[in-house]
C-alpha cells in the first residue's frame, strides 16, 4: 500500500477520493455500455443525461434562479477573460468595462480584455503587493459601464472579497475559479460568474459559466462561435465536441458535494481548515502570512519563512512527509497550501503538525 500523500497543489488540484475511485471503476465500462465515457459521442443520449444532471445538480447546490444559464465552455477560465468583453462590452455605447485588480489573475483578466473594449481599472491593491482587497466605493462604479469584473478569490496570495459590492444597474462579473462552491453565495447578485474546473470542480481545460439570460444579447459580431455565450446557451454547450470527460467528472464532484451536506456544510469545514493554519501562522513570527487577516480567504493559505534557504528546506522535508505541491507560485515564491473542498481535514492537520515540528527544529 502506498503512503498517504496530501496534494496541496493550486490546480490542477486534488479530487475527492470517492470521485477518483468511481472514475476508476467506471472508466472501461460506462453504465454497462462496454466502452469508456471518453469514447462516447457528446451527442449520445447517455452523455446528454450526464450534462443535464450536472447542470441540475449545480442549480440545486447554489439555489440558482431560473433565469440563469449554466454553460460548459472550452479554454478554462483564462479564455473567458477575452470572451467576456466580446459578449458583454456591447451593453455600453462606448464599450466601457470596469475592473478591480486584486492579484495576478485579475491583472491578466483586464490585460486580455483590452483589445475588445474600453477597459478601465478603477481600484487596485498592486501598490501593497496585493495584501488586501482595495476600497471600492459605489461612486467609483460608472453606471454607463457594460459591467464590473472582480476576482472573487486570489489564488496566488489568498485574499478574497468577504462581501461583494452593490453595483446598481451594472452587472457584476466574478471569476470564482479558486472558490467556486466553497461558500454560500447569493447568485442573484451576479450577472455572470465563471470558473475553471481544475480547482474545485474537475479536470483542467474547461470552464463553467453561469450567466443571467438577459446578458446573452450583446455579443459583438466579431465574437467567434465557440466564444459566443448565446450560441453556447442555445446549443446547451454542445456547439462542437465538448470535453465529455471533464463534464462527467464535474457531475461526480457535484454529487459528492451534495453527499457532504451541500455548500453550507463544506463552508464550515473550509473555515475550520483555514483557521487551523492561520492560527499557527499568527502564533509567532516564524511563519509570516502574506494577506492581512481581514482579507483572508479559506482556499489558499500563503506564507513565507525568514529566508529562501529555509523555505527550500521546508518544501523538501514536507515533500518527503507526503505533503505535496506546497511551493508558492513562481511569481510570488514562498509557501502556499491550497485547501480546496476536496482537501480533507486530516490533510490540513498533517500539514499543521509538520509545521509545528519544523518550527521546533529550526526556530
Domains, number: 2
Which stretches are poorly predicted, pLDDT < 50 over at least 5 residues?
none
Named at the architecture level, the CATH assignment of the largest domain is 3-Layer(aba) Sandwich
CATH topology of the largest domain: Aspartate Aminotransferase, domain 2
Lateral strand order in the biggest sheet: 2-8-7-6-5-3-4
Can you tell me the CATH superfamily of the largest domain? Type I PLP-dependent aspartate aminotransferase-like (Major domain)
Class of the largest domain, according to the CATH hierarchy? Alpha Beta
Percent in helix: 25-40%
Number of strands: 12
Strand content: 15-25%
Chain-averaged pLDDT: 97
Provide a count of the helices. 9
- Tell me about the largest β-sheet: 7 strands, mixed
Q: From the alpha-carbon coordinates, what is the Rg to the nearest angstrom?
A: 21 Å
Separation, N- and C-terminal Cα atoms: 35 Å
Question: What are the SSEs and their pairings?
Answer:
Elements: E1 6-7, H1 17-26, H2 45-62, E2 68-74, H3 76-88, E3 96-101, H4 104-113, E4 118-124, E5 148-151, E6 172-175, E7 192-196, E8 206-212, H5 229-234, H6 244-259, H7 263-281, E9 288-289, E10 300-304, H8 308-320, E11 323-324, E12 335-338, H9 345-362
Helix pairs in contact: 1-6, 2-6, 3-4, 7-9
Features:
12 strands; Aspartate Aminotransferase, domain 1; Aspartate Aminotransferase, domain 2; single chain; alpha/beta; 363 residues; seven-stranded mixed sheet; three-stranded antiparallel sheet; 2 domains; 9 helices
Amino acid at each position: 500500500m502506498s503512503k498517504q500523500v496530501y496534494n496541496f497543489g493550486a490546480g490542477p488540484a486534488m479530487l475527492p477520493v470517492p470521485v477518483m475511485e468511481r472514475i476508476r471503476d467506471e472508466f472501461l465500462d460506462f453504465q454497462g455500455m462496454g466502452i469508456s465515457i471518453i469514447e462516447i459521442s457528446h451527442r449520445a443520449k447517455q452523455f446528454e443525461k450526464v450534462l443535464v444532471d450536472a447542470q441540475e445538480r449545480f442549480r440545486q447546490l447554489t439555489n440558482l434562479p431560473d433565469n440563469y444559464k449554466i454553460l460548459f465552455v472550452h479554454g478554462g477560465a483564462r479564455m473567458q477573460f477575452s470572451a467576456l468583453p466580446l459578449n458583454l462590452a456591447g451593453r455600453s455605447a462606448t464599450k466601457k468595462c470596469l475592473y478591480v485588480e486584486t492579484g495576478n489573475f485579475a491583472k491578466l483578466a483586464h490585460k486580455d480584455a483590452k483589445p475588445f473594449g474600453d477597459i478601465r481599472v478603477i481600484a487596485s491593491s498592486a501598490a501593497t503587493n496585493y495584501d488586501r482587497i482595495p476600497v471600492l466605493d459605489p461612486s467609483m462604479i460608472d453606471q454607463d459601464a457594460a459591467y464590473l469584473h472582480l476576482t472573487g478569490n486570489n489564488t496566488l496570495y489568498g485574499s478574497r472579497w468577504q462581501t461583494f459590492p452593490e453595483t446598481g444597474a451594472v452587472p457584476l462579473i466574478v471569476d470564482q475559479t479558486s472558490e467556486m462552491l466553497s461558500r454560500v453565495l447569493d447568485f442573484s447578485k451576479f450577472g455572470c460568474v465563471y470558473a475553471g474546473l481544475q480547482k474545485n470542480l474537475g479536470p483542467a481545460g474547461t470552464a463553467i459559466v453561469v450567466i443571467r439570460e438577459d446578458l446573452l444579447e450583446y455579443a459583438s459580431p466579431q465574437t467567434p462561435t465557440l466564444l459566443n455565450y448565446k450560441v453556447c446557451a442555445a446549443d446547451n454547450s454542445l456547439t462542437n465536441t465538448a470535453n465529455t470527460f471533464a463534464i462527467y467528472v464535474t457531475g461526480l464532484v457535484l454529487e459528492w458535494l451534495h453527499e457532504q451536506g451541500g455548500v453550507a456544510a463544506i463552508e464550515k469545514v473550509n473555515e475550520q481548515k483555514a483557521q487551523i493554519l492561520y492560527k499557527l501562522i499568527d502564533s509567532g513570527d516564524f511563519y509570516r502570512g502574506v494577506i492581512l487577516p481581514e482579507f483572508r480567504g479559506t482556499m489558499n493559505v500563503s506564507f513565507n519563512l525568514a529566508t529562501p534557504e529555509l523555505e527550500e528546506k521546508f518544501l523538501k522535508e514536507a515533500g518527503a512527509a507526503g505533503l505535496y505541491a506546497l511551493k508558492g507560485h513562481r511569481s510570488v515564491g514562498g509557501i502556499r497550501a491550497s485547501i480546496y473542498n476536496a482537501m480533507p481535514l486530516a490533510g490540513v492537520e498533517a500539514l499543521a503538525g509538520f509545521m509545528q515540528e519544523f518550527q521546533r527544529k529550526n526556530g
